[in-house]
Specification:
Layout: E1 3-4, E2 10-11, H1 27-63
Antiparallel strand pairs: 1-2
Length: 64
């Protein structure tokens, strides 16, 4: 599903590719990308903590 601006033109969804050339990216776009990446990092860290807790619980169970 494409996003559209007020004129009905398709608006490019903000994406970031690691190592991408940033010379043509505006300050506003950089700030959007940073915000998205921070959200993704938080999501990854939450999942990591959940998996580490599950692993620790399993390790305790099987060490008995």
């Amino acid at each position: 599903m494409a996003m559209h601006d007020d004129d009905g033109r398709a608006v490019k969804k903000v994406q970031h590719e690691i190592g991408q050339d940033l010379s043509l990216v505006s300050v506003a776009e950089l700030n959007e990308r940073i915000a998205l990446l921070r959200q993704e990092i938080a999501r990854l860290e939450a999942d990591l903590a959940k998996k580490q807790n599950s692993r620790a619980a399993a390790d305790q169970f099987f060490k008995k």
